[in-house]
Amino acid sequence: MNTWVTLRGFPLSIRLLVVNQLGVNIGFYLLVPYLAGYLADDIGMSVAVIGIVLGVRNLSQQGLFLLGGSAADRLGARSVIIAGCALRAVGFGLFAISASLPILLAASILSGLAGALFNPAVRTYVAQAAADRRAEAFALFNVFASAGALLGPLLGSALLLVDFRVAALAAAAVFAALTVAQAIWLPAQPVTSSEATVWQDWRTGIADRRFLAFSVALAGMFALQTQLYLILPMQAEHVTGQPVAVAVLFVISTVVTLALQMPLTGWLQGRWSRGTSITVGMAVMGAGFLLPLLRVESAPPVLRLVPVLAAAILLTLGVMIAQPFVLELIPAFAGHGLTGTYFGLFYLVSGILAAGCTAAVGAAVGAAAGAGVPAAAWLLTAGVGVASAGAVWLLRRGGLLTPAPAPVSAGVS
């Protein structure tokens, strides 16, 4: 109830984008989790080629976040949001119409580019439209994004009973509908230029040591969130021997988010500083990954799942505590007309570091394939959470999380 009351208290533009985020995640998770299986089983591609197709999509998105953020600053967030959704509709549609490698690569590039445009732009729009209620707005985003991430795979698994191409067309239709809805109802915002070149804007952000330190410190948040789709499902299935345990994991995580995100964010706003919330959130995320180290092999399968479920719940709680305030702080670093650029830079820097961390976790798991997730992987992920919490605490002690006059772009006199 609190979620709906809060949502109704925002202007139409925020309500539209929050519901839009639900649709974005439904469309994305309707298709992407099943893409590798389709390429391998239906088309017969080798693992190496599948890696290229999936890697191109990730690289197109991660590598172009900065470009998407700058586009939002210069063209207006509304235009870039619409373009991002339209490109993803085209990209997902291409997955349905052809199995040739060139078309699949084009589809991967377009869908990745769409994310690089959409993600910084929608957060830039929300940061501007929500004003002093940014934390609440980003908390709502987390609620609806989580719901979409649960509903998407459920819908996708049902459509796969018909054909993967049907699922791809359905995903494309979702993004096409979102494109039309935003083109009709999403109001335009004033575009504030930094009065500098794009390169000067980028140089301003890269030279902002406060912000780079913040981005590096929070890379752990993305790295640990990824484990909800990597080591936690692997361990859940390993300890129970039942694939349904993975579904239980996702359902519990989503229910916790839907029930607690808005009350928790409201409670924290009245009691803790943003720096404290982020520090505690990261520590909670890291601590959760110690729980699967508990030895419960002799217990019944249901009880063996408890440490993994508890880890997923603590991970979810940590994200709920930290993430709204992380996203709220990013515009405080940005100078005039640079909000999108700073969101893009944040996702670029933290995303690259998180990918490296996830690769290290994957290597630790690969070394013990078939025996469940090894202790080294749990200790590594727990260490990432603690290190991120410590880094944020140091930034807070140094006054680097306190809103201050943001850097001015090099082209402004």
From TrEMBL:
User: Which sequence ranges are marked TM in the entry?
Assistant: 12-32, 38-56, 77-97, 103-126, 138-160, 166-186, 211-232, 244-264, 276-294, 306-330, 342-369, 375-395
Q: Where is it mostly found?
A: membrane
Domain Major facilitator superfamily (MFS) profile, by residue range, is: 13-400
| Topology of the protein relative to the lipid bilayer | Multi-pass membrane protein
- Where is this protein found? Cell membrane
Family annotation (InterPro entries): MFS (IPR011701), MFS_dom (IPR020846), MFS_trans_sf (IPR036259), MFS_Transporters (IPR050171)
State if Glycoprotein is listed as a keyword: no
Keywords annotated in UniProt: Cell membrane, Membrane, Transmembrane, Transmembrane helix, Transport
- Xref: SUPFAM superfamilies: MFS general substrate transporter
Protein name per UniProt: ABC transporter, permease protein
